[in-house]
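Support request, please re-run this one:
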Amino acid sequence: MTRRKILLSILLDEFGGLKLNGFDDRLTLQKRIYLLQFFGVDLRYRYNWYVHGPYCPTLTEDAFEIEREKEDVQKQSLGYELTQGAKKRLQEYREFERERQSTDLPRFLELAASIHYLKHIGFLPGGVTKDNIKKKLLERGKGNFSDEQVNAAWDLLDKYELIRNKVRS
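Re-run finished. Output below.
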């Protein structure tokens, strides 16, 4: 078992454990880890664009391996704990999730991760303005998010300095 999978398991325990039962569980996993990495808890997962925004096949593989080898992972996790820095960033991330508007968590994470990805990683002809990102969200099948939801997610990302190009330490 790699250290990354052990750390992933420890982090997921902080959110009630690994859940892979339904689509929303898997969506939440993908987007939560994507965003946590930009909060400064870098597990070195790399994402590309998929139907519901940023997606990492390696994360999916790791999660299902953790599920299959649950007992072994629990035993190996006993010798590890999060650093103070990781605990601080995790707490900040939890505050970010709590501050979301009325959108349910999986949908909010999908929108927030998609906005962040398009702003910082996805190639956007015409620049990375909020209006251009809204246009790209529509083009990429994200038209079911209202302007109000997009603006609220954008503002929350900006509040936590994830819209600006500041590197978190």
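Strands lie at 48-50, 53-55. The chain has one domain: 3-159.
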